[in-house]
Specification:
149 residues; mainly alpha; 83% helix
């Protein structure tokens, strides 16, 4: 497993955990009536503003720990950080996935607003489309590395 593979696996796992946590919190907060008032978008934003840095920190810590654990188990001393044209191609494939999902989610949110959906639902569409875009980018890169092209 290459260094990039390990990073992609950690990012996918952290993304799934973060998304599951967000869904759990949204259901919990909705059941408690936290989104019933006029400040529903503010309550949602306060939740999301804390999740973003926690997910970033979790990805960084997870990547470090996973790479250390992998090095101990496989007895490899030093990972290769060499980046070639193939790595850049795989990164571009991932960027395309992010742009497609994020852009599609934004357009879907705008369409939802035109049909009278609440701003809270539109923000949820945008958030989950970006989360799906991020996870799909990592999955595309992981599959590309596994295939080798």
């Amino acid at each position: 497993m290459t260094y990039q593979d390990r990073n992609n696996v950690v990012s996918i796992i952290v993304g799934l955990i973060t998304t599951a946590y967000v869904i759990f919190r949204l259901v919990e907060m909705n059941a408690a009536g936290r989104f019933d008032g006029a400040d529903a978008v503010n309550v949602w934003a306060q939740m999301v503003i804390w999740i973003i840095p926690i997910a970033i920190g979790g990805t960084i810590i997870g990547t470090i720990l996973f790479n250390i654990g992998y090095a101990i188990v496989t007895r490899t001393e030093k990972p290769s950080f060499l980046v070639d044209e193939r790595d850049k191609l795989f990164d571009r494939r991932g960027i395309v996935a992010v742009v497609l999902f994020s852009g599609g989610g934004f357009i879907l949110a705008i369409i939802a607003l035109t049909f009278g959906w609440s701003a809270l639902r539109a923000f949820n569409i945008i958030y989950f489309s970006m989360a799906l875009g991020s996870m799909s980018a990592d999955l595309v890169k992981f599959i590309s590395y596994r295939r080798g092209y």
